[in-house]
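Here is the promised in-class demo. Please do not try to memorize the tokens; focus on the logic of going from shape to residues.
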């Protein structure tokens, strides 16, 4: 609509003289003046020297009407000079036969021409202004129609209840939503004070709030409140009500604009949500109490389990100590009792040899008996030393380890490499634990690994002593190794016993294994200030046995 109005204005503007080409307007003015001059020549026999400017009036009037002010001045000027030169006596001269009369005629012509031009200019400007006013009026009317259409479109299509009130509160317009949804007709609510309309008939408190808010809104203060209202069927609902002032461009309040959003369902959901939240909090509280009870029971069970585990560890440690003591006792008994008995048997055999030396075949049988006695004595000593090497108590771990490694290499054919980087000063208990770890590890290599060689290394720093036994066999299955790392179970009593012995002295046992072999490392914290025994060199010492 606005584009059509603008097009009309431009079309009218193109028809105005001021917008015609200047060259065209001036050219037409000159042509009209020439035509007027030619017509005056044609009328010369009739007028003679009288009325020299009679034909130029028509040219001036036409120029004023069609060509504009500038071209009409040109026309008047050309007409003045042409009439003076050709028609005032003497003709064809600018001299005047009767100067007084000639000047009076030209002055009158000039004044009348100026009046005509001025009148035409004023008339043309008035006409142009009138046309502009008419166009502006049409544009404003079209804009008003468009604005009204837009307002009605928004007013009717909004998802809110909407209406229009005068400043005194009279309800003068309502959109379809607030009528159709609520079940009212326009004649039931329009033309009444808004607070007296049917929406509020059952709610005096809502009526009073709206009545009090109306003059404040008329002063420019918006109002918003949650109110109760009623449908035509009498059902009660809740509305988020607002009252806004409608202002003109100067800020003056012209009307009031009441709006509303039905929030009945929202309030119901909020109520249900609060109820659900309360129920959830109650259940959470009950569950929390149940969890607290379960946690207390679990803590009690954990505490009991810790006590039980501690008792089991103490029992295991005591069992290991008793086992070591029993091994020591058995070793001593074998050495002191059975060994002495076999030694006495050998002496008796020697004496018997002297007595029955003359008996045929007796010397051979006695030699066999002596060999068997010697073999039994050797095995008794070996078993006694395996149970508890006497040199472990006499000269320490290094010598006992060397003796045991040499014996294993001779008996099994496994190549062993014992490296004593340093000789830490260990207590008797620490030496015994390291020897049992060495003994159990080498037994596992012999029984399970299938490794052709074993590397044994004893090392220490300022805080810890480390014993590592590395073989090159088939390794421990991954699931078995994981079970041992997590529970110290699943690999028999050997590794578990080692781990328990190490733990009793504050150390730890690590086992690394893959398809290339297994490495067992026992770490014990040193209880002495020095990490190297007195009188022993600190440089590396390597002993190899085949």
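The designed amino acids, position by position:
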């Amino acid at each position: 609509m606005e584009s059509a109005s603008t097009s009309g204005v431009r079309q009218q503007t193109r028809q105005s003289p001021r917008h015609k080409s200047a060259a065209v307007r001036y050219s037409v003015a000159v042509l009209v003046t020439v035509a007027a001059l030619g017509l005056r020549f044609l009328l010369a026999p009739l007028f003679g020297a009288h009325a020299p400017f009679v034909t130029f009036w028509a040219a001036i009037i036409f120029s004023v009407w069609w060509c504009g002010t500038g071209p009409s001045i040109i026309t008047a000027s050309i007409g003045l000079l042409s009439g003076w030169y050709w028609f005032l006596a003497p003709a064809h001269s600018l001299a005047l036969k009767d100067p007084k009369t000639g000047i009076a005629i030209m002055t009158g012509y000039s004044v009348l021409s100026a009046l005509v031009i001025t009148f035409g200019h004023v008339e043309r400007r008035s006409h142009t202004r009138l046309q502009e006013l008419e166009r502006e009026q049409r544009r404003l009317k079209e804009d008003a129609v468009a604005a009204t259409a837009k307002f009605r479109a928004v007013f009717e299509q909004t998802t809110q209840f909407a209406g229009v009130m005068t400043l005194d509160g009279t309800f003068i317009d309502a959109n379809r939503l607030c009528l159709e949804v609520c079940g009212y007709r326009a004649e039931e609510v329009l033309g009444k004070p808004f607070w007296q309309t049917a929406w509020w008939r059952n709610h005096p408190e809502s009526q009073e709030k709206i009545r009090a808010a109306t003059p404040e809104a008329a002063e420019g203060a918006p109002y918003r409140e949650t109110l109760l209202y009623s449908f035509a069927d009498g059902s009660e609902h809740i509305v988020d009500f607002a009252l806004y002032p409608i202002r003109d461009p100067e800020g003056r309040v012209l009307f009031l604009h009441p709006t509303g959003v039905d929030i009945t369902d929202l309030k119901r959901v909020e109520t249900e949500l609060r109820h659900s939240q309360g129920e959830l909090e109650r259940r959470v509280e009950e569950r929390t109490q149940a969890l607290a009870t379960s946690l207390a029971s679990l803590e009690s069970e954990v505490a009991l389990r810790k006590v039980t585990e501690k008792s089991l560890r103490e029992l295991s440690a005591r069992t290991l100590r008793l086992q070591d003591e029993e091994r020591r006792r058995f070793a001593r008994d074998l050495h002191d009792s059975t060994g002495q008995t076999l030694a006495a048997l050998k002496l008796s055999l020697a004496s018997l040899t002297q007595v029955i030396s003359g008996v045929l075949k007796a010397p051979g049988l006695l030699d066999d008996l002596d060999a068997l006695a010697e073999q039994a004595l050797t095995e008794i000593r070996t078993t006694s030393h395996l149970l508890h090497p006497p040199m472990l108590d006499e000269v320490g771990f290094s010598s006992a380890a060397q003796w045991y490694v040499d014996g294993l290499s001779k008996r099994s054919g496994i190549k062993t490499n014992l490296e004593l980087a340093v000789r830490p000063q260990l207590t008797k208990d620490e030496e015994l634990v390291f020897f049992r770890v060495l003994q159990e590890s080498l037994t596992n290599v012999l029984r399970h690994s299938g490794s052709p060689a074993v590397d044994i290394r004893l090392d220490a720093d300022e805080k810890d002593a480390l014993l590592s036994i590395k073989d090159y066999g088939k390794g421990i299955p991954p699931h078995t190794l994981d079970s041992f790392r997590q529970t110290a179970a699943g690999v028999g009593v050997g590794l578990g016993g080692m781990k328990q012995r190490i733990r009793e002295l504050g150390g730890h046992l690590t086992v690394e294994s893959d398809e290339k072999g297994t490495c067992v490392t026992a770490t014990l914290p040193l209880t002495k200030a020095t990490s190297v025994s007195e009188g022993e060199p600190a440089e590396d010492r390597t002993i190899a046995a085949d």
